[in-house]
Automatic annotation (TrEMBL):
GO terms for molecular function: hydrolase activity, hydrolyzing O-glycosyl compounds. It comes from the Bacteria. The keyword Endoplasmic reticulum does not apply. Pfam families: Glyco_hydro_2_N (PF02837). Residues 83-160 form the Glycosyl hydrolases family 2 sugar binding domain. Keywords: Hydrolase. The keyword Hydrolase applies. This is Glycoside hydrolase. SUPFAM superfamilies: (Trans)glycosidases, Galactose-binding domain-like. It comes from Pseudokineococcus marinus. Belongs to the glycosyl hydrolase 2 family. GO terms for biological process: carbohydrate metabolic process.
Length: 964
């Protein structure tokens, strides 16, 4: 291997010399021995990363290059970039690979073909000193016909250039440093093969479900004398291990062919031919779908007449499957299917490139299925053959995309080289992977710009006509055009770009009765929501030990340092768990809102796993290795994201004592057929989640939903259930303590016995009439909104609760209910800036306000309109009673409830304005009473004291002047 930094190799005829001798020193920079398949970077070649490294990817937040805070991470030898995973070595340019091969005598007179399964990016090939050609596909293997090679020794020289050959967009996951990285090399199959003159060049299998048959379309290629005559033998055999009757295997089908080797108008011999063959599979042939992925191994044997030694065999695996549109939903074999998808963005930290073995992909697919998902969307890239095979076997649906994100400089439909490349790569993808039954949706790529609607309307029409075996959409994200079979659009979803604190979960009280019916009513075709979620959790610093390969988590190292510098390094695990549980709550409502919508097409999560680029987007309940982070098990996720998902439409999740619990049962069922099932509900007590009364999981009420048939779909809604909670209300009113209840729905299959369960927490707090007055609840406590008064009276020895008006506090930290959306670096500081709350659930404050140590739905009323206080200026030993978790880019020490000794007294400061909580905010009023009761009780004894001067200075720092 030799690195061609100056692009001198072709001019200097490197293909004509022995690079294995003069390729340069094995010093990690110039050249040496490299093993293929593999990349040169993972084998130690390339350059050291510096602050001047010219990356392939957009950096939105340029503060790394400018801010003093990042100065230590720009020093030579200590470079750590915060915006994506960092390779150990980096190289973009041409590299030359060479080896000597021995052509056996048995190959005499035969053409030799070289196959390179996965090349990044453009390859050029020489045999000895003859230039064979060049290939540039990012999706399909590079194949070279080397012609007839004489037996004996030959030198094969390959030049690979991993720079931008066509501008597919700097952030396209097919090439960008945001995800897989700019690797150089060849992975997967690297093989030389001899082939006879006549071969099957392409097999395209068209399933015909109604006829239980396959139409096998064969393209034959011959030598100089043409295709000639012979026969084709087609054999199909079931090759899955699914239970149940299999029926008789179809008989082999023999088709004779004879093509005249006459002359074409140009006087050249015809060298190609085409055959269409109908292959019956039998009336009992099994269909392929996500519930029963029956597969057939198809063997096509080509036997040229009179040349038995030239017999060749092409093999493929197919499924009897048709995908279509029925109204506003996608249908597989005529049955409605709800897309429950997530993204795969080509994130493989150990190697920097995707695996090409089935086992690796089968693991990823199994993880997705365990979480209840049924589709993988490959964002702006196409996976290797192994991914399709793993999906076929598991019944996983795939949305495959061309290697394009024509944005951030790139554009479509403007006559550039990208337009032709899109069609070129589409053809390659469909020819190479089109037989796979899992391949159900094709998009050109992601989120385009330019004259995209015009260009992609033609693209959809062209390729659907040429290959109608799947559905087509113009692009992921947009445009929604009439030519589409389905739309991937950025709405509806719970949080849209730049929506900030105006999004539904931040702006409106928590319910579970919202859906997207208005979108469906106005839809002309299925809508599959684009990249929903994007809810972040705090970095998992323990994850860093997993990065033992090429890509290094230097971004996480930076964030860990920031946390230490903020005096919170020992809280990292608490931050991860608390933010992760809030993230899970948001994903649950995100998924259920979609499942509640009759006629809806589905969603693509962003995502089930973390995205380590674009500033570092920790949006998954799984890490970049598709492994759990410790706060969510697959079974918990699948409860709200499965084939059969019980749903409850709750108009309120926070009740006052005396209110009834009201809900409407619904079941989203997209199984193989209707269920005969019993649907039940029950309301259970919980332990309160903190210092509240341990109620032990007793059943408060239970019932049965009428009817035993659960049809396929989600349109059926059952009668409203009203559950009186008199006993709970009396207990709450008498004790002044809120309780947490759990509503659980279960669907039990009466034939198969399977159970499908889902649950929702509901809180009951004292009603306004049962509340004590502020004075009674806080006997001996001074309650004030004035910081000066609070400090003065605490210094004088009094117990003081300070609740400043929200408008009087700084708002440079946007505190909402939800966690950070995507990440604050890539969104340029979009709100919210925090990742939820962390607190000790056993703290005496929560004796009256049940909580579990993290943000849950009862906190919405408290947080709505609240501000986060920065604790700079207070001793680091002072830990807030309730602590908002800051974005990892800032790692500021924040407080929502803070206590401290001042002089001879004690001060409790709350930046959630709950003093005048109205009657329709029982949780906020309960939190106020909990604060006052705690301040009046014996447990209010702050462990950290500050002087009146320090307290006053800090309060002045977190306050702003309010106009009169």
């Amino acid at each position: 291997m030799a690195l061609d930094r100056d692009d001198a190799g072709e001019d200097q005829r490197w293909y004509a010399r022995d690079l294995t001798c003069d390729g340069g020193a094995d010093d990690g920079a110039g050249g040496g021995t490299v093993h293929l398949p593999g990349s040169l970077q993972e084998q130690g070649y390339g350059d050291e990363v510096t602050a001047e490294t010219a990356w392939n990817g957009q950096v939105v937040d340029r503060s790394y290059y400018l801010d003093d805070r990042y100065a230590p991470y720009r020093e030579p030898g200590k470079v750590a970039v915060p915006f994506w995973l960092q390779p150990r070595r980096y190289y973009r340019g041409a590299a030359w690979y060479q080896r000597t091969v021995q052509v056996p005598a048995a190959w005499a007179g035969r053409r030799v073909v070289l196959e390179l399964e996965r090349v990044h990016w453009e390859s050029t090939l020489w045999v000895d000193e003859r230039r064979v050609g060049s290939e540039r596909s990012l999706c399909a293997p590079h194949r070279y016909d080397l012609g007839v090679l004489a037996p004996g020794e030959h030198r094969v020289t390959l030049r690979v250039d991993n720079r931008t050959v066509v501008d597919v967009g700097p952030n396209a996951h097919s090439t960008t440093d945001h995800t897989q990285g700019s690797w150089n090399g060849v992975v997967g199959r690297v093989a030389l093969r001899a082939r006879p003159d006549v071969v099957v060049r392409r097999v395209r299998v068209v399933p015909r479900v109604a006829d239980r048959a396959l139409t096998v379309r064969l393209d034959l290629a011959g030598g100089p004398s043409g295709v000639g005559a012979g026969r084709v033998v087609l054999t199909a055999r079931r090759c899955d291990d699914l239970p149940g009757p299999r029926g008789p295997e179809p008989e082999p089908l023999v088709v004779d062919y004879a093509f005249d080797a006459g002359m074409s108008p140009r006087g050249l011999s015809a060298t190609t031919a085409h055959l269409d063959v109908d292959l019956p599979l039998g009336d009992g042939a099994a269909l392929w779908d996500e519930h029963s992925p029956a597969l057939y191994a198809l063997e096509v044997a080509l036997e040229p007449e009179g040349r038995p030694e030239d017999r060749t065999v092409r093999r493929t695996v197919v499924g009897l499957r048709e995908v279509s549109v029925v109204g506003t939903q996608i249908a597989v074999n005529g049955r409605p299917t709800f897309v429950r998808g997530t993204l795969e963005c080509c994130v493989f930290p150990l190697t920097g490139y995707p695996p090409t073995d089935v086992a690796s992909w089968a693991r990823i697919v199994a993880v997705c299925r365990a979480h209840g998902l049924n589709l993988l969307r490959f964002h702006s890239w196409c996976p290797p053959e192994a991914a399709f095979r793993a999906a076929d076997e598991a019944g996983m649906l795939l949305q495959v995309e061309g290697p394009v994100w024509a944005n951030q400089g790139a554009s479509l439909g403007e006559g550039g080289s990208l337009d032709a490349f899109v069609h070129e790569e589409t053809r390659a993808v469909l020819d190479e992977f089109g037989d796979h039954p899992s391949f159900v949706v094709m998009a050109h790529g992601n989120e385009p710009s330019g004259r995209d609607a015009e260009f992609l309307g033609d693209w959809v029409t062209t390729w659907r006509r040429r290959d109608p075996r799947r559905l087509y959409t113009s692009g992921a994200g947009w445009p929604a055009i009439v030519e589409n079979d389905l739309d991937n659009v950025s709405e509806p979803r719970l949080h849209r770009w730049d929506e900030g604190l105006g999004s539904r979960l931040n702006a409106t009280p928590p319910t579970t009765d919202a859906d997207y019916s208005a979108w469906v009513e106005g839809a002309a075709r299925p809508v599959v929501s684009h990249e929903v979620g994007q809810w972040c959790a705090h970095p998992s610093f323990a994850e860093r030990a997993k990065y033992t390969g090429l890509m290094q988590p230097r971004n996480l190292d930076v964030f860990a340092d920031f946390l230490e510098q903020g005096g919170m390094g020992d809280q990292a695990e608490d931050f991860l768990h608390a933010s992760g549980r809030l993230q899970l709550l948001c994903y649950k409502e995100e998924v259920e809102a979609a499942l509640r919508t009759p006629g809806f097409g589905g969603f693509h999560l962003l995502g089930l796993s973390d995205f380590p680029g674009q500033g570092t987007a920790l949006v998954g309940v799984l890490d970049a290795f598709w492994e759990g982070k410790g706060y969510c098990e697959p079974e918990e996720f699948a409860r709200f994201c499965g084939v059969t998902t019980p749903l409850a439409r709750l108009p309120r999740r926070v009740l006052a004592a005396g209110d009834d619990l009201v809900f409407e049962p619904q079941v989203a069922h997209f199984g193989a057929g209707p269920l005969r099932a019993r649907t039940t509900w029950r309301v259970l007590t919980t332990d309160g989640g903190g210092g509240g009364e341990a109620l032990g999981g007793d059943v408060v009420a239970e019932g049965v939903v009428p009817g035993e048939e659960v049809p396929v779909g989600n349109a059926r809604r059952h009668d409203v259930v009203r559950v009186p909670l008199e006993a709970v209300g009396r207990a709450v009113a008498a004790s002044g303590t809120g309780v947490r209840l759990r509503l659980e729905l279960a669907v039990v299959d009466l034939d198969g016995g399977a159970e499908h369960r889902n649950d929702w927490d509901v809180w009951v707090f004292p009603a306004p009439a049962a509340r004590r007055s502020d004075e009674g609840a806080a006997a001996g406590v001074v309650v004030t909104r004035a910081p000066d008064e609070a400090v003065r009276r605490a210094d004088a020895g009094e117990r003081v609760v300070l609740v400043p008006p929200a408008a009087s506090l700084r708002d440079d930290v946007a505190l909402g209910f939800t966690p950070v959306f995507w990440n604050t670096a890539w969104t340029k500081g979009q709100a919210p800036h925090t990742l939820g709350l962390v607190h000790d659930a056993q703290h005496p404050l929560f004796a009256r306000f049940p909580s579990t140590g993290h943000t849950d739905w009862q906190w919405w009323e408290v947080l709505h309109g609240a501000r986060a206080m920065q604790l700079e200026g207070l001793p680091r030993a002072l830990r807030p009673v309730v602590q908002p978790i800051d974005t990892w880019f800032s790692a500021r020490r924040l407080g929502l409830v803070v206590e401290m000794g001042v002089g001879d007294g004690a001060l409790l400061v709350c930046s959630a304005d709950v003093l005048d909580a109205p009657a329709d905010r029982p949780a906020a009023a309960a939190f106020r009473d909990a604060l006052l009761a705690y301040a009046a009780g014996p447990d209010f004894a702050p462990g950290v004291a500050v002087s009146a001067t320090e307290a006053g200075r800090w309060l002045a720092d977190v306050s702003v002047d309010v106009p009169e």
